[in-house]
């Protein structure tokens, strides 16, 4: 340890009074504009129609840290007619696009199951892109009693 190391530590401790420094970081919630921008990044200017997509997610969850979700799309999954991708969006998390899944006819069926984190009660939207480049969607409201995505950094 050099003398300059001592001076730096002493200076730091005298400035802080020996107290620990606590920094609380809470990510900003997504805004409706952020959500629409994230969706437009995926679909471009294409119309998104309701239907063909089934979003299975509990309407009420106690803990937003691990919310089970399954998205399935009505498709024969043949080389001529299949689901190219499934995208998951949410209304209030810091990142509005929370999942992108890419499929081929070899997947056999157009279905994905996962667990997501939800910062608060909000809408979750699943959008599927079919092989004919049409977009289909389903939306569900989820009530969260214990929010996620709001951890404190120490």
Structure overview:
- The chain is α+β, with helices and mostly antiparallel strands.
- 17% of the residues lie in helices and 38% in strands.
- The strands form two sheets. Strands 1, 3, 5, 6, 8 and 9 form a six-stranded mixed beta sheet that branches. The chain has a three-stranded antiparallel beta sheet with strand order 2-4-7, with no helix packed on it.
- Strand 8 and strand 9 (135-146) form a beta hairpin.
- The two termini are 27 Å apart.
- 23% of the residues are buried.
Describe the structure in brief:
The chain is 17% helix and 38% strand. The protein is of the alpha+beta class and 154 residues long.
Topology of helices and strands:
Elements: H1 3-16, H2 32-43, E1 48-50, E2 53-56, E3 60-63, E4 67-73, E5 83-90, E6 97-102, E7 111-116, E8 122-130, E9 135-146
Parallel strand pairs: 1-9, 3-9
Antiparallel strand pairs: 2-4, 4-7, 5-6, 5-8, 8-9
Unreliable stretches: 18-26
The description of the largest β-sheet is: 6 strands, mixed
Q: State which percent range the strand residues make up.
A: 35-45%
The structure class reads: alpha+beta
Terminal residue distance: 27 Å
Total number of helical segments? 2
- Write down the secondary-structure element order: HHEEEEEEEEE
Rg, rounded, reads 22 Å
**Record field, number of beta strands:** 9
The global form is globular
